Amino acid sequence: MRLILAVASCSALMVLTGCSSSRHDPAEKYYLVAANIKLPYWQTANDGMVRAAQQMGVQAQMYGPDTYDPQAEAQELRNVIAKKPAGIMVSAADPAVLQAPIDEAIAQGIPVITIDADSPNSKRLLFVGTNNYMAGQMGARKAAELLGRKGSVVVYTIPGQGNLDERLHGYREVFGDAIKIAQIINVKGDPRLAFDTTNEMVHKGTLKPDGYICLEATACKEVADVLNRNNVTGRVIVAMDTDQDTVDWIKKGNIQATVAQKPFTMAFYGVKVLDDVHHYKPANLSANWERDTTAPIPVFVDTGASLLDKSNIDEFQRARQAASGQK
Fold first, then answer.
1. The domain containing residue 144 runs over which residues?
2. pLDDT digit string (tens) for 270-281?
3. What is the CB neighbour count within 10 angstroms for residue 301?
4. Which tens digit of pLDDT belongs to each residue from 48-104?
5. What is the mean pLDDT of the chain?
6. CATH code of the domain containing 183
7. CA-based max dimension of the chain
8. Which runs of consecutive H residues, i.e. helices, occur in 205-262?
9. Which of 34, 44, 26, 30 is nearest to 2 (CA)?
10. Domain assignment present for 315
11. Residue 326 in domain
């Protein structure tokens, strides 16, 4: 298990951030629990959480397994609940598996919100993240344009993970009957499966799709690598997210586009929401906020998504480098 720690005390950061002791206790602590936290995506989310913690003069920490393992994530969540934190953010790799520990935390009076991947049937207070159905439609419109609104594609995903299922729904709605989804590949959070499956597809030649669609971050850079190694050209690849390998393949022209989410924003804003709930806690955390027209919090906060391709990838990279202090 990988543990990433970010401690920000108000006394140490007073000069840098101007944080105030009027509301925040330096011992106040917030957690982010996710799966596969070694991914660049989650490192970026951790950066957002750290930034918010520094601004408020509180502590923040990310927990979770290094691989895609919903059961291990659920156990990590229970470990965090035992620490009695001020609040918890959870990315539900499997919404059903994470539902029970989320509900346990709420029952103990610990505010829990979901980010990135929701567990809608749980008692979480709200979801902060991408409108995944719309993100799927965004990617599908670009793929359809590149494919000339015809042909077949292979989709790489993790069936049962709610946010990815919503993206697939968005793709299906746009593709309709014009573009066929010839195969759906379960990568199980392991990029090696994307590489091996694509490599087998290329060498056996039993399936020759016109395009490759990735609904999660790890697969399309592997697909691009396989096609490049085998000199396969003329295929459309639409990826998800913006780890450096994906960005590099876009610049080379092997990946035509990617749908960029905002994991930094999700975690940054998520900590701010939890902090507000912690200090102004509703009388009943288990209330049905969705039906309450006077609820103090929303049900869903859309952090947005954007489409990146060769026309704007350099601009994106400059902005990311400036934000991280790189030249």
1. 132-260
2. 999 999 999 999
3. 17
4. 999 999 999 999 999 999 999 999 999 999 999 999 999 999 999 999 999 999 999
5. 92
6. 3.40.50.2300
7. 66
8. 219-229, 244-252
9. 34
10. no
11. no
Among all chains, which residue has been given the structure tokens 């543990």?
A: 3
In this structure, what token pair is assigned to residue 187? Answer: 């990568």
Is residue 163 a contact partner of residue 117, using CB atoms and an 8 Å limit?
yes
User: Quick count: other Cβ atoms within 10 Å of Cβ 255?
Assistant: 28
* Rg, the chain, Cα only: 21
3 contacts 205 by C-beta, under 8 angstroms = no
Burial of 262-300, coded b for 16+ CB within 10 Å and e otherwise, reads: bbbbbbbbbbebbbebbeeeeeebeeebeeeeeeebeee
Q: What's the token pair of residue 173?
A: 């709605």
Distance between CA atoms of residues 163 and 116, nearest Å: 7
Q: How far is CA 49 from the centre of its chain?
A: 14
Strand partners, 113: 89
Task: Write the single-letter amino acid at 327.
Answer: K
